[in-house]
Every structure is written in C-alpha cells, then in structure tokens.
Amino acid sequence: MANCANCTNELSERGFRELEQFIDELSDKNGALISALHRAQEIFGYLPKEVQQFVAKKLNIPVSKVYGVVSFYSFFTMIPKGKYPISVCMGTACYVRGADKVLDEFKRELNIEVGETTADGNFSLDALRCVGACGLAPVVLVGEKVYGRVTPDQVKSILKEYE
C-alpha cells in the first residue's frame, strides 16, 4: 500500500465530490484550510498531492501553503495508513515503563519501521508523544482500541486479534 498501485481507485470521484461539497458548504473559506484538510483525510485516509492540489484550488490558495500545513502538523499524513493503524505512546511514563521495547517488538513482528505500512496494507506503525493514559503505561492504540500495560511478549497476541 505504501507504493499504492491503486491510488486512482482510492482517490475516487465520489471522494472528490464529497470533499467539494464540504468545501462549498463552508460559510467562510478564509481560515478553512485545517477544516478542509481534516475532512479530506477522513474521506481519503491520507493527503496525497492530488488532494492537496484540489483543496488549494477550491480554497483559492497556493498549493505550497496547503503542503506547509500538511507537512507541519503530525496529525496529517501524506502516506496511506494501514487498515489497522498501530500507535505506541512514547511519552515519559510509557517510555520509562518500556514503550521503546514494545515499539521495537512491533517493528520486528511487522518488519516495518515507524511511519511505514506493511506490504499487505494491513498495519501501519507510529510513535506518539502522549495519549494521556499514563496510568496504563505503556499504552498502544490499534485504531481507537486502547491496550494498557503492554509488554513486548503481548505484541504477537495483539496482532493476532487483527488477522
């Protein structure tokens, strides 16, 4: 999926129509860039250059401004995420309790690095600063499901839940 052979299918006409409708319905287009990008990422799952160009055109702003925002904020991604995005909290409490070892085990099991997606498109791996669940440290998110007090030994069983 990282080399996305079917990007044109993923970037469907329907998706562009939905995004266009969202932007057209905005009462004030000035200052709407973040909202438009959030909606675009909800629709497409990521923000490739074609989507950034579309947003720039619809908001009548330079593509460079759109790219600047997309590349600055860590929430936005220009790379397709896996079907099951995995995020390992690397905040202080999680790190002190072994999050680095948990992250290393995910990298080993999935054979990918942070920021990458598995070849089958099932999993992507990210490290986060803090998820605000320090009492459960170390914390792993798979999609929106929270796993607390995760050890490296639990990584295989977590991944099996999504096979």
Automatic annotation (TrEMBL):
Pfam families: 2Fe-2S_thioredx (PF01257). Its cofactor is [2Fe-2S] cluster. The keyword Iron applies. [2Fe-2S] cluster binds at residues 89, 94, 130, 134. Keywords: 2Fe-2S, Iron, Iron-sulfur, Metal-binding. InterPro entries: NADP_DH_HndA-like, NuoE-like, NuoE_dom, NuoE_N, Thioredoxin-like_sf. The keyword Iron applies. One of its GO terms (molecular function) is 2 iron, 2 sulfur cluster binding. Binds 1 [2Fe-2S] cluster. PANTHER family: NADH-QUINONE OXIDOREDUCTASE, E SUBUNIT, POTENTIAL NAD-REDUCING HYDROGENASE SUBUNIT. Belongs to the complex I 24 kDa subunit family. This is NAD(P)H-dependent oxidoreductase subunit E.
